[in-house]
Amino acid sequence: MAVQTASAETLDDALVSAYSSNPTLLAQRAHLRSADEGVTQALANWRPQIRLSGDVNRANAHINQNQAVPSQVSTAAQASGGGSAATPTITSAVNQTIISTPMDASVTVSQALYRGGRTVAQTRQAEAIVEAERASLRGTEQSVLLSAITAYMDVVQFRAVVELSINNEQVLQRQLDATNDRFRVGEVTRTDVAQAESRLSAAHADRRQAEGNLAAAVATYVKVVGHAPEKLSAPPAAKGLPASLDEAKAQAEHDNPNILSAQYNYEAANHGIDLVAGELLPTVSLNGTAAKSYNYSGQGPMERVAEASVTVSVPIYQQGQEFSRLRAQKQTAGQMRISVDQVIRDTLESVTKAWESLQTSRARIASYGDQIRAAEVALEGVTRESQVGSRTVLDVLNAEQELLVAKVNLVQAQHDEAVAAFQLRGTVGQASARALELPVQYYDPMVHYEEVRDKWIGFGDPSPDAKEAK
User: Fold this and answer.
1) In this predicted model, what pLDDT tens digit does every residue of 428-457 receive, in sequence order?
2) N or C: which end of the chain has fewer CB within 10 A?
3) 348 in any annotated domain
């Protein structure tokens, strides 16, 4: 395993980087902020709706009219006593243009007084959904951090395996050189040389495989953590593990985020039943309107109108759709309840697997430690016996291979123990950044929730992560 140095990157450093920059986790936080708005939208049903409307029209009317007027000559004759003969007239054309600019403006206010209990049900449903999404965020956070831990341990493991493979190559190269020297003086046969060459070629292949595994582990590390690994220190032993399997199961049923999310989704589905049932109940609303109309050109009277009304709507029959939605929602709630049972079973299975993996890894570490010590003694003895001719080159090669395999197995067991320990913490809901006591500002989902819950207006910030870290 890697040796810790002052300049080495620690496991906490990698976890802090993943916690602060992993896209999957950042996206889940944004998803939760979107779910927060569901509560705001539900509470909006308690608020009035205000609408302002108005219109302006302009009309030009051109009137062409022929008008009869008395003749001036006839009028003068009558004045001089010319009798009472009929008065002659002449026709005159009259043109008139009338310009009209009528304007109307109105304000309408509508306030729902009763919606069949749907506002309360929708609010409770939205709050349950927010709780479910918070639990999902905790689950995503744990998943990301566990992925970072696994990636970290993979790099540590494969670097150690590469180092062992390189050392094994060097040992086998020296063994081949020594065998060739002994072959030249007739101490061993050509078969012994071929066996040494075969083992060296296999060691080359094993080293290339180890380097390929390391390259893949580094790529995963970059994806999860956000930067390439430098020198990595040996991880500390996991703390806060359950003392027994039963304790782990009990803690998981209480704190596992997947179980909590399923339970809140079931609660939200139950509130959805009340929400749909509200469609069968009456609704009451208060409406008020104030309107004003006048002609900007000064023609016509000015009118002002103000009125208020209470509207009661009682659903009698709406094609039966509301009954169908109610039945469907009840089935959805039943499905969610079954899902809770399934998630609990899946979680308890994961707890058991993580617990057994941890115990198995610890036992393997102890056994491989014993094996390495025995293999080192055996290799030393076989090497000495080979030098006096009582052992063959193949015996030495086999002893070296057994020691190498034991060391590689120990590295893998140490990797598996660390990963299993953190997986166990994850299954019992104790692998979050706060539970791991990471030196980082923790994301607080309540900041955004409290900000928007009772917000009447506002466009919002698409990236408020920094503001919600504390």
Assistant:
1) 999 999 999 999 999 999 999 999 898 888
2) C
3) yes
Write down the residue that tokens 């009338």 correspond to: 98
Instruction: Tell me the C-alpha to C-alpha distance, in Å, between residue 410 and each of 161, 165, 214, 405.
Output: 10, 14, 17, 9
In order of 67, 87, 94, 236, 409, the CA distances from 91 in angstroms are 6, 13, 10, 115, 123
10 Å CB burial of residue 309 (0-12, 13-18, 19+) is exposed
Do 183 and 228 touch, CB atoms closer than 8 A? no
Give me the long-range contacts of 3-8 (CB less than 8 A, separation at least 24). Answer: 3/233, 3/234, 4/233, 4/234, 5/231, 5/233, 7/231, 8/230, 8/231, 8/232, 8/233
Distance CA 123, CA 113 (A): 16
Distance of CA 202 to the CA centre of its chain: 46
Distance CA 133, CA 36 (A): 9
Query: Which runs of E-coded beta strand occur in 156-259?
Result: none
What is the mean predicted confidence (pLDDT) over 7-23?
Answer: 92
Question: Phi/psi of residue 276, each to 5°?
Answer: -70, -40
Is the per-residue pLDDT at 76 higher than 80?
no
Q: Which helix (H) or strand (E) holds 170?
A: helix 118-184
Specify the pTM: 0.82
Strand, coil or helix: 172: helix
Helix (H, G, I), strand (E, B) or coil at 53: strand
User: H-helix or E-strand containing 94?
Assistant: strand 89-100
In a domain, 235, yes or no: yes
**DSSP-derived secondary structure letter, 320:** T
CA distance 198 to 176: 10
- Distance, in Å, from the CA atom of 228 to the CA atom of 220, rounded to the nearest integer, reads 9
Query: Phi and psi dihedrals of 380, rounded to 5?
Result: -60, -40
- Domains of the chain: total: 1
Q: Is residue 166 part of a domain?
A: yes
Residue 310: which H helix or E strand, with range?
strand 303-313
The CATH number for 222's domain is 1.20.1600.10
Q: How many residues does the chain have?
A: 470
Tell me if 449 is assigned to some domain. no
- Is the CB of residue 231 less than 8 Å from the CB of residue 2? yes
Sign, Cα dihedral of 428, 434, 440, 446: positive
- Give the range of the structural domain holding residue 207, as residue numbers without chain letter: 11-49+119-277+322-435
